[in-house]
Design a protein that fits this description.
Number of strands: 7
Shape: elongated
Order of helices and strands: EHEHEEHEEHEHH
Structural class: alpha/beta
Largest sheet: 7 strands, mixed
Radius of gyration: 17 Å
Distance between the termini: 23 Å
Helix content: 25-40%
Number of helices: 6
């Protein structure tokens, strides 16, 4: 197997968090291109299946225009039971999410899809992390909503910011709930790229 240059890798996202997480392990994709896809869940679609479909759809959308590149697609989904909590677009959605998660366990699914050039191979990994929030007071809810940190965050949660103080416990991958499971991503990419950690 010929080891590839990271210049041949496209991250199908413009997320600053994902870019920063990759840099944390000395990975800098040649390109970062956001994939504009329909993110509407299918009827009765389970959260894990949804996260896989979104990650794969993002990677495929970018590779359609860039067939000679490796493409990494990622999607993070917050779920309460079977219910998918989408990115909060407004304060009403954010409030519904944060009240639903208050005092409860929820799951965060992050799927990573790596497509090799010309889609000759497809690798998918999904990481599930269980998170429990403390029971939030009305004052804490108002304070969090006023911060606007919930904007465009899955389930209205910014774990790197204020929402981090609501976490009673977490079982799984911390980097995954921020947006990219580092261990799984590193393992996938190291099959094709010479990754220098030092």
């Amino acid at each position: 197997m010929i080891e590839q240059s990271l210049n041949n890798l496209i991250l199908a996202s413009s997320s600053e968090r994902r870019i920063a997480l990759l840099k944390q392990i000395n990975i800098e994709p040649g390109l970062t291109l956001p994939a504009d896809i329909d993110e509407t869940p299918l009827k009765r679609e389970l959260p894990k299946n949804y996260s896989i479909r979104m990650a794969k759809s993002k990677a495929e959308k970018i590779q359609n225009s860039n067939p000679n590149y490796f493409v990494l697609g990622v999607d993070t989904v917050v779920a309460c039971g079977r219910r998918i909590l989408l990115k909060a677009k407004n304060i009403e959605q954010a409030e519904r999410c944060i009240r639903l998660l208050s005092g409860r366990r929820h799951r965060v699914y992050t799927s990573v899809c790596l497509l090799t050039p010309d889609r000759s191979k497809e690798h998918i990994r999904t990481v599930v992390t269980i998170v429990k929030f403390k029971r939030l007071s009305e004052q804490e809810i108002k304070y969090y909503l006023a911060s606007e940190e919930w904007k465009n965050r899955a389930g209205g949660c910014n774990m790197q910011g204020l929402a981090g103080i609501f976490v009673l416990f977490l079982r799984g991958s911390y980097s995954s709930i921020i947006g990219l499971p580092l261990y799984e991503t590193y393992c996938l990419l190291s099959n094709y790229f010479n990754l220098n950690l030092y």
